[in-house]
Design goal:
2 copies of one chain form a homodimer. Chain A contains 15 helices and 17 strands. The first copy, chain A, is α/β, with parallel strands linked by helices. Chain A has 3 domains: 5-172, Molybdenum Cofactor Biosythetic Enzyme, Chain A; 179-252, Alpha-Beta Plaits (2-Layer Sandwich), CATH 3.30.70.2860; 257-407, CinA-like (Maf protein, Alpha-Beta Complex). Chain A is elongated. The model of chain A has no long low-confidence stretch (mean pLDDT 91).
């Protein structure tokens, strides 16, 4: 079997513009990590002729096809029937699968609709892949060219669970080179600056495939190394990257900066409070996405109005009058104020102009002041970035979290 | 030209699993609204043979093709060259376009890289579509079958701006039935309940195409009506929907519930403060995504710890001891407390168990209490919903905003 994949998404709701195709995106990421390049992705409707068209147009290079179906049992059936017949089989009723589905639904106290009989119709030319999360089983067809064609339901949880439990183990066993992907996440540094710092030095690592992936929270580096070279290459590569990029790397692997901060606070036994203005609660929202954060994070205040800054944080009227709400003096008073009032060990504050209105010549939209405090250190920075209100909030939240992270190093 | 479309996305970063294909999603939504069904979507790499393959496999039914390119100028060129030659043309250097690009870059104080000469190479068999946001122009080829093949850059802002300014006006002029799409957004009601209430009655509207689109914030209804029937059908349809669904419809058109709340507060001249616990700042974050919200929204407090609830909001130690942080009594004291301390006219409070830990037999994970206050009314509700920490936060934020919205009706 050739290790090149195509992904087919069958979904009228996607072609109606209502649903973002996150299944194909997730599958792509998983396949790439397994060293299986994705040649093409297709999104088609659940019509027989469309399914046949895409099956007929598969590349000769393709050895693996993953086809994710629509959402309802009825829709899945068109796909199942079409693919079964395309590969020369037919659907037969499986009493044992039917019993199994009924058991599952009984456990959930659900009534058993007639359409579930359809879900117990299985191809006589495919292997069944169990679905731990639902009632529609996954299927694996093998065609004359040796291709594996996997059929999985479109419900993301079910698709992922069948992939993880049945498909991934098969793909891992494929002959061919095994690879490992190392992720280094950076923030507070431009992609071009990273390239300047590491591009030449990477010539010493011809065996490493390098990918740069910029996002609003920073640039992620993906380093792909052959499994049998990991031992010799990875420690040297790691040293090289930290040597050149230093503390702009905030984590290895796929974690958020908030998890790193939570970890560091927990290790030190320190607590945190946050005073926000232009980020509008986003920093608190991001921190509280981490389970168990309540052990270190006690309160987050969005002091949007000047009055709230004065009353809640003790920012002085004078400072606001003299320097304005978006100033170094104000964010220092905000951070000191919330730390004192909340009794935490560390504090973070942000004030800026998210836009679209509110900018001036000296302080244009996108101007943001940030202050971070620990028992040992106090630091302020000013950033300037304008990509619209929504992006400004995200960018400022990341810059603030990053300032705190660096003080915790 | 036939009004059926295919969308081709060329992007190695998408096939590397690094980038979500939001361009295709956006274009699909726009085309569907223009009554142009999207037959297929393709994602391929920027290799000549892949581009040729997909062009050759276009359906005979397809009259419109939109091809979005990769991100860099170098990558765009492979696409441009391949498509130009496929349609029998060649690239020629345009001195005037080159001057224009240089002017644009000068205005932004940017250096002019040599690769911009490439961007001034234009096909001799295509129309140029100006790019107001960048330097890579859009192109329109017309093939022998009368198909229009549009080529636009992959940078989302540039793609959207070329679509809006050049492509949309052309597509609007296409012969064929014009349609109008009416969106009704509901919240706090299950999809099955909506179906129960309106499905039969919709038989009186055979000329209306109905779509149900569930999301975490509620179910959106899309009603498609032929342009020439709008006058007779839409007022009757509207009456019918409000009659059956009442105030579960929070808006028509594509607006967020926070915009509706901001509008209602502004109309009444009322201000708002918010006290959050389990939603972790998400309500404040969602409210502050609305430009100008600072006029009505003064502060949002994430009082995560009991101490913060006592100190910041004046919740009584007794209430917390007797009823717990997740209780009707606590959310009432939170809402009254923040309203009093912040001096706003209205207030909203939420306390619950986001999970994964912290649940008990009486108050399992997903239990949320909400209180909303206006000068005239006070209302509390309890909701129960557990789809994981992240979803619980989003669901609770929407339920809270919806409670406030209903008090403002």
């Amino acid at each position: 079997m050739k290790s090149i994949a195509e992904i087919i998404t069958i979904g009228d709701e996607i072609l109606a513009g209502a649903t973002l195709d996150t299944n194909a995106h997730w599958l792509t990421g998983e396949l790439v990590t397994l060293n299986i390049p994705v040649l093409r992705r297709h999104t088609i409707s659940d019509r027989t002729e469309e399914i046949l068209h895409v099956l007929r147009s598969l590349s000769d290079d393709t050895g693996i096809v993953i086809l994710t179906g629509g959402l309802g049992p009825t829709r899945d059936d068109i796909t199942k029937k079409t693919v079964t017949e395309y590969f020369g089989g037919k659907l037969i009723f499986s009493e044992s699968l039917f019993q199994e589905i009924q058991e599952k639904l009984k456990h959930r106290n659900r009534t058993i609709p007639e359409s579930n009989r359809e879900q117990a119709m299985i191809p006589d030319n495919a292997r069944i892949l169990p679905n731990p999360m639902g009632t529609a089983a996954g299927l694996c067809f093998k065609d004359k060219k040796g291709r594996h064609v996997y059929l999985v339901p479109g419900v993301p949880e079910e698709m992922k669970s069948i992939f993880n439990e049945s498909i991934r183990p098969e793909l891992t066993k494929l002959p061919g080179e095994k690879i490992r992907v190392f992720i280094y996440k950076t923030t507070g540094i431009m992609e071009s600056e990273i390239v300047d710092r590491i591009d030449e030095g990477l010539n010493d690592f011809p065996m490493v495939k390098v990918g740069y992936y910029p996002s609003v929270y920073g640039v992620n580096l993906k380093m792909t190394v052959k499994e049998n070279e990991v031992g010799t290459v990875e420690p040297r590569l790691r040293d090289f990257l930290y040597n050149r990029l230093g503390d702009t790397i905030y984590t290895e692997g796929d974690r958020d900066i908030t998890e790193i901060i939570a970890e560091k606070l927990t290790t030190r036994g320190w607590t945190l409070s946050v005073a926000e203005s232009c980020t509008g609660g986003l920093i608190s929202h991001r921190l509280t996405d981490i389970p168990g954060i309540s052990k270190v994070f006690t309160e987050g205040l969005l002091t949007y109005s000047n009055e709230a800054k004065i009353r809640r944080l003790g920012v002085s009227v004078n400072t606001l009058k003299k320097h304005g709400a978006v100033s170094e003096e104000t964010v220092i008073e905000m951070a000191r104020g919330i730390r004192q009032k909340s009794g935490t060990d560390t504090a973070l504050s942000v004030s800026g102009i998210a836009g679209p209105a509110g900018g001036t010549r000296e302080k244009p939209v996108g101007t943001v002041w940030i202050c971070a405090l620990t028992p040992e250190k106090e630091k302020t920075i000013r950033i300037q970035f304008n990509k619209g209100r929504h992006m400004n909030k995200h960018f400022a939240s990341q810059a603030a979290l990053n300032l705190l992270r660096k003080l915790l190093l």
